[in-house]
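During the second year of the project, the team shifted from modelling isolated chains to modelling whole assemblies. The rationale, set out in the original proposal, was that interfaces cannot be judged from single-chain predictions alone. As a representative example for this report, we include one of the complexes processed in the last quarter. Its constituent sequences, exactly as entered into the pipeline, are reproduced here:
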Amino acid sequence: MCATDAKGSRGAGFSLWGFVLARTKTRRLKPAPLRLRLAQLLILSFAIVPAYAQQTTPKTAPSLAPKRDLSGLWHYEGTGASEPIAPDNLIPPMTPWAQARFDVERPGYGPRPAPGGNDPILQCDPMGFPRIMFLNTPFEFVKAPGRVIQFFEHEHEYRSIWTDGRSLPADPDPTWYGYAIGHWEGEDTLVVESTGFVDSTWLGSTGYPHSEAMRVTERYHRADHETILYDITITDPKAYTQLIVGPHRIMRLRPHDVMVEEICVPSEEKSFANRIAKPATPKSTR
Amino acid sequence: MRFRPLYLLTYFLLAFSVTLGFTAAARAQAAQQQAAAKPASPSASSSAPAPAPKRDLSGVWQLEGDIGAAPIAPDKDIPPMTPWAKARFDAEKPGYGARGAAGGNDPILQCDPIGFPRIMMMPTPQEFVQAPGRVLQFWEREHEWRPIWTDGRALPEDPDPTWYGYAVGHWEGDYTLVVESTGFNDTTWLSPTGYPHSDQMRITERYTRVDHDTIAYDLTITDPMAYTKPIVTPHRIMKLRPGVEIPESPCVWSQENEFTQRIRNPATPKPAK
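Output from the structure prediction step:
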């Protein structure tokens, strides 16, 4: 929605696209059971190895992943983005604290959309983490000494994932994008732990609150040169009675793309809300 | 090394004090401490700063001095405006400076991006991170950043205008990063006191690492659509802030709006016209 210029219709286009997807239940992601995930990996490895053996088809075979390196611009495959963090049926029961918050949320998408809702991003308040992970816009990893920097096209945001061995702060000042540390498991999986989030962001465009006690664990597994398998788990006992386990998502390298500067600009956002978003939002189905 | 004359003076005073006795020696010691303290940051107490590393600006930096809401250049150093710029200038209602007014129309009051180069004049820290093919510049203010491409590419011919522009850099010698930027939209102001610019604006910056702890910073704005001559800003000094991590401080509209109503508007003086 935060298109920065007249040509940059991608932002507005995405909003409507996301809206269409949110209304199309068949496109919902389902989390793959572990057995299926293993099977997928097995099939993938069968697919890769012979392709490597046959040098006649080099174009179709992705090259091997570089070691301990996620550098590059990535984008979700398919509709991995513009989806809720997890389908409604996989959100565990809320605590009374979270339920009270959930009840006053008026999201613009999902089964309870409302025109003139109170989604914080409507006034360009930061989207926050991890919601920013579920957008149909690219993000980029850049390696720097002691950290991996993750840049998000949406909101022109970034966060540092500290890889210098420090631990998470015991009592962090809450921020919109939290405090993140990472370590490598083997040569190809970056495990990121983060904490220190403000509780004013939603987990997705369909709502769902979280508390300041939220901790997020992510696994970025570089399966091959062009592929990251992404898993996210949210632990927030103040808000949910169990972990939220996000569906398995796939990200693809976009070597020829560049990120554009897509800042959320309140003056533009207000005009978009009044001109497009409000007229387009159907009345609540409740 | 820049401060060698001070060392020589100190050594001379120390040697001379041997013949003059204890009092003179004490005086010389004081002079030595003074000489050392002057260029060093507060954390480095007893010695002059180390020499600058080559082709490396990495670290957290902060402008020196009390430059809270300093304009990009004093009013007298702003060259005459074109009629196009003058019309824009007249419509601006800044919150600071000679034309300061409550309920103004400074774009940042509603969290529209502060933009470049205005963000450079903020008293909050900024950071350089070296990465392959680019130097990344981060600002605490607005939690913003820009890449300065150092892979030899040229500025784009017809860039899409953005708030922070498109920047390329090259090293002049081992200590000066020269940054050229263009592709700015024309909705940002140059200063809290106003002053417009056009989307033709081009900026040249020089970041000279004088020693380990110091960058000398110079900025020149060329914008013939708005100003009849380049704007040459005053020489500024940035100091290294070792151990400082840039916190996350995005502009949050809901908070900003409340601040404007509660603090900013009541505190802004009536225009001094």
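The CA atoms of residues 64 and 224 of chain A lie 5 Å apart. The interface with chain B takes residues 4-5, 7-8, 71, 120, 123-126, 142-145, 149, 151, 156-158, 173, 175-177, 260-261, 263, 265-267 of chain A (CB under 8 Å).
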